Structure formats: C-alpha cells, structure tokens
Amino acid sequence: YPGLRVWRNLLKADPAVDLVHFTILRPPEKQDGTPIQELALIAFPARELFELKLQEFDLIIFDRYSRRGLLPLVYLDNVAQYVEQGGALLEAAGPEFAQPSSLFRTPLARVLPGRPSGEVIERSFTPSITDLGRRHPVTRGLLDEDQETPDWGPWFRQIDAETDAGEVVMAGVADRPLLVLQRVSEGRVAQLLSDQHWLWERGYEGGGPQSQLLRRLVHWLMREPELEEEQLGARPSADGLMIERRSLDPEPRSVTLTGPDGSEAEITLTPDSDGIARAEFETDKPGLFTVTDGTRTAYAASRVIPPIELASLLASRDPLLPVAEASGGDVRWLDDDPSVELRRVEPGRRAHGRGWIGLNRNNAYTVAGLSRTSLLPAWAAMLILLGLASWAWYREGKA
User: Fold this and answer.
1) 344: exposed, middle or buried (Cβ count in 10 Å: 0-12, 13-18, 19+)
2) Is 375 helix (H, G, I), strand (E, B) or coil?
C-alpha cells in the first residue's frame, strides 16, 4: 500500500513527533505450518499499547485497518474511551471500511462521524473543498480565493458514507463526504474516506496539496492553537488596529473594543472571501486595547508612537536630571568620568561629589529565616573534651 510510506514520511519529518508504527504483514488466515515463535521478531505489545500506555499517545491512526481478530473488541473500546477523554483519532479508510470487518462494526462506531453504506466507488474524481471547508483552518487556503474549481490530480477510489454529525470539509464523487472532522466529548476525530491521497504525493497529473493537507489535519487533531476553528485576534495597523475573527459561522459578528482610557466601542466584523471576518479601527491613542466577543478576548497596542518615550531617540541627561537632583543625586557620563566611584551614603545626605556617586543605605531588608547547625553532636564534643582532658592529665603526670 503506497500510502503507508506517505504517513511515515510526514510524521517522521516532524522532530516533535515520536512515531510508534506497527505493520501487520501476515494475515491470520495464512496458515502454512510456521511455528508461532518464528512469526515475528517480537510479540505484538497489544496490552501495553491499548491498555497500559494508551493515554500517553497524542494521536492514533488506523490506516485501512479491518477486524481480523488481532485486537480484541475491549481494546477498541479503550480507544473510543481515549477519544472521549480528550484523545485524537484519524481513520484513513480503504475498501475494508465498507466490508463486514469494518471498524464501524466495533465500539469505535460511537466516535466515528461516517457510517459506511457498503458501496466502494472506483472512478476518477477530483477532491473539492466544501463551503464549510473554505472557512475551516484545516482546508482554508488550499484553493486560491478566486479559484472555484481545483486543478489537482484525480483520485480513483472513495468509500461512500453517510454523516449525521461532524463537519464535511472536503467532498468527492457527487459531493459525497470525503474528509469529515468531528469533536467527540473532549476529543477529536477525522475520517478520510479514501486511500488515494498518496497520488498527490507522487505528483500524478499534477498532484495536489497532499503534504499541507495531511500536516494540518494531524496538527488539528493534536490541538495546534493556530488551527483552532474559533479565534479572535488584533494587531497594529497603519492607522490603528486590525481586528480579525476566524469562525465557521459566516454571519457578521460584533465585538466590543475597550480603549486604554476605558472607552468602549461596538465594531461589526464582516467575513471576507477567505472566511476571516475583519474590521479596521482607526485611532491615534497610544496604549493597550482589549477586544472581546463575549467568549474570547484579545489584546493589542496601536502603532501610535508614545510622545514621551520616543519623541526623541537621542541620549540626553536632561529628562533624568530633575529627578536625580530632587533626591540629592546627579547624572554622569561614563565617557567623561569612566572611573566614577560608587559609595554608600545615609538617607538625606548628599549623594554625589567629585569622582563619586552615592547610593542610599536604606537598610530596607527583612530577615526571612535563621538556622543554626552544630559543628559536632553533643556526645561527640563531650568525647573530644574528655579525650583532651585525659591527654593533658597524662602529659602533666609524666612531667
């Protein structure tokens, strides 16, 4: 199966991913008398992976997997619970998904968004992005804004499935679901209803954005913050602030902008063709602005130059000299007096002179704790004293 190498190359290319990969090359129905101890170099650690250490994984991928008795149903039920408790599952479906040995006929059915109809469509088709997919961060930008029909290479197999839940972001033959994303309780699930994505990686008839699509898909499942569907942000612009809201809801939304002086303004964000709602707020006030839509909050500072801090970028002693003189000090240039001496002075005393500058001795300290440690235990000290006394008495007697 050529798609296997695609997954390995994708996941191994990310140094942050620690890949644990098992390939079952020998199906159980193949019986030729080979001793069991010679069927594998190591025993398949099913209990360790699917029971003891299951919660340590960030993502589980079933690639064209079918039930052949290798994994008991209780382990697949553990995977379903793992997803419901915050885990991530990706199924790359092949013809096996439409057969009686499908994963849908296991406890995983309660977390999978697609229900197989039993039909395997084998014909040429070009994957397309749905209207929802144009706004979803996993598939947004795969097509140019002015591009209606993708010019990608074709795929040749799709597993027909019905979806009662989830978000269909890519479609295939006759607009049937091709890529479905779903949040299940605290976890996330993705179903790719074709095993032909590797054709894009090979560049068949021009290929397609295979690497970008799969990388986004994997990182969305693993909760990459930049790929969250609902986001609110603000950034400085030439005339003030640019406010952006990313959402799957295409309707305009209003946000509340609070200025550094506490003033508030209602701003309506209108979605653009790329699915991001934007609005520019013109302001000449310096300081920190707060933007909220009632659920999410973002902060940004306008690009207006503060008049005091950056009015003049030339180094000068004039701004600090009044403050220094008020406290009895002075401002010195090290170029003029590189050997200036620092001295401790009492509060209220003159804090500068020829060749020196004073630092107030404020005695502003607090004793946070005090501990004592004996050099020797009492009994050891007593033995040493007795020994010295005995030695002195002995020497005195000899004399």
Assistant:
1) exposed
2) coil
